[in-house]
Write a structure and sequence with these properties.
There is one protein chain. The protein is mainly alpha-helical and 203 residues long. 51% of the residues lie in helices and 9% in strands. The strands form 2 sheets. A two-stranded antiparallel sheet has the order 1-4. Strands 2-3 form a two-stranded antiparallel ribbon. A hairpin with a 2-residue loop joins β2 and β3.
Length: 203
């Protein structure tokens, strides 16, 4: 079976159960990087040397690793479903070296100045909650007033909001542990409530 046939006949159907943002990413990697090189090859003919030569041609290690993740997933599914006898992804494959990534974090002083800069802004309450709870971007976008217990400050993180392929998508938490309860400090509860009432009175 050709990899293109496997994609069309089996793998696309499997992707339907994935989160939309994941599915869109897989489709992009397939269309841009995997299909042009491996689409016309038989599953059993894709070898380690072919994969390593392909990976060496990427301009950056990030794109190479994302494309490899899609090809690896396809070949592993093909082996699991009986379309491939030898799973080459289980062999040692040299991947492009990723540069060390050290995220830049705001200091306490910088966070304070950021919050002061948003004082009275329509997004102030959201920024307070997002900053104090260190949420993933999609989690921050998904917080609703009903998720916050204004007496205890306990906030239920139970959904995310993503912008995918030109439209908004509400999604469940990324993992089982991502559905969680987090405490807001008292100043955040008091100021969020005040800011929220101010915005409501204007709108």
């Amino acid at each position: 079976m050709l990899l293109q046939e496997f994609w069309d006949d089996r793998y696309v159907g499997y992707c339907e159960r994935l989160r939309e943002v994941t599915r869109v990413g897989y489709e992009s990697a397939w269309r841009c990087h995997v299909e042009p090189v491996f689409g016309s090859m038989e599953l059993a003919d894709i070898g380690v040397d072919d994969i390593e030569l392909w990976l060496s041609g990427f301009a950056g290690p990030g794109a190479a690793r994302k494309a490899w993740a899609v090809l690896r997933q396809m070949l592993r599914k093909a082996a699991k479903w009986g379309y491939l006898e030898v799973d080459v992804t289980r062999l040692e494959i040299d991947l492009p070296v990723k540069p060390l990534y050290v995220p830049r974090l705001l200091t306490i002083g910088q966070t304070r100045r950021q919050l002061q800069g948003f004082y009275g802004h329509a997004l102030e309450a959201w920024l307070i909650v997002d900053s104090c709870l260190a949420l993933r971007p999609e989690e921050g976008y998904g917080v609703d007033w009903a998720d916050i217990d204004m007496r205890s400050g306990i906030t239920h993180i139970q959904r995310g909001v993503q912008w995918v392929a030109g439209h908004e998508v509400v999604v469940p938490p990324k993992t089982e542990l991502s559905d969680r309860f987090l405490p807001l400090p008292r100043f955040a509860v008091r100021r969020s409530a005040t800011a929220g009432r101010a915005v409501s009175s204007v709108t």
